[in-house]
């Protein structure tokens, strides 16, 4: 270990080699979800619920699997696990409540986005001392998620079409930020010689 590298940074650098692809998958899923929402703006509430449910369950399952598999080396694995569980639960609620109304779906997505945003911001702040960790991208993604959730809560009556367009734009922006962050994290792992 070089003398100028803080010992506390090394565990973060070594976990980057396993984290970057999880973040990349989540980003790709979010972008695909956003594209589906924008390509079919006339999508019904039921179809949107199914798309959201599948996205949330797959995203959550990836996070749960990763956090449990790497809990011995993943600092803050409980945070990843919590995010995964919340995501899976949100997806299951949407999936097993087929009669969900547009307003209930709006509130579900709003609270989901706010919770994910807050957890993302906390995670970003934990990584801020790690050089090249991509924490700024995580922070921006978290802030975007919180803002999106708050906008949905403040303007719930904007209509389902407005919700779908806003949701599509948010998902694409959030996904792109995650993809950029994943490559930043991968680059940090390469620089540290662990990839």
UniProtKB/TrEMBL annotation:
> Is-annotated flag, keyword Transmembrane?
yes
Q: Which organism is it from?
A: Rhodococcus artemisiae
> What lineage is on file?
Bacteria, Bacillati, Actinomycetota, Actinomycetes, Mycobacteriales
**Superkingdom as given in the UniProt entry:** Bacteria
Against InterPro entries, the record matches this protein to: Acid_resist_chaperone_HdeD (IPR052712), DUF308_memb (IPR005325)
One of its Pfam families is DUF308
Which sequence ranges are marked TM in the entry? 20-40, 46-65, 77-97, 103-127, 134-154, 160-181
Is Transmembrane helix tagged as a keyword? yes
Q: What is this protein called?
A: HdeD family acid-resistance protein
* Coiled-coil residues: none
Keyword annotations from UniProtKB, A to Z: Membrane, Transmembrane, Transmembrane helix
